[in-house]
Amino acid sequence: MRIRRTKLLRMINKKMITLPWGVYAAPKALVAEDDMTHEFIHIKQWGELLYIGFLLWYVLEWLVRLVQYRNFDKAYKNISFEREAYANENYSDYLNERKLFAFLDYL
Question: Considering the entire predicted model, what is its pTM?
């Protein structure tokens, strides 16, 4: 998959982001294998929830976590999708071994 570069990520202080139409990285960000694994996990999650389902779940869970933690960054890091991706980004075989809807284990 091709990684597109965009300056917009600097504004939200993120290195990379996955959207249904592609993976984006900040202009000068170094993209390592674990970064790609993290983003490919998100691609699997997007597909499992048929894109719109992922987006709705992500936003709703972020809002719940924001109320829970009262901190933007902590809320983001505790979304089940992110917890799965961060927990497994260093395992290169994870994408081959991953169960369907594995993010549910991180709720």
Answer: 0.92
pLDDT of residue 87: 99
Locate 97 and state its tokens.
């071994």
User: Into how many domains does the chain fold?
Assistant: 1
The pLDDT value given to residue 20: 86
Range of the domain at 62: 32-106
Rounded Cα distance, 22 and 87, in Å: 22
22 occurs within a structural domain: no
More confident residue, 12 or 44: 44
- Distance set, CA 7 to CA 44, 46, 70, 82 (Å): 25, 23, 28, 22
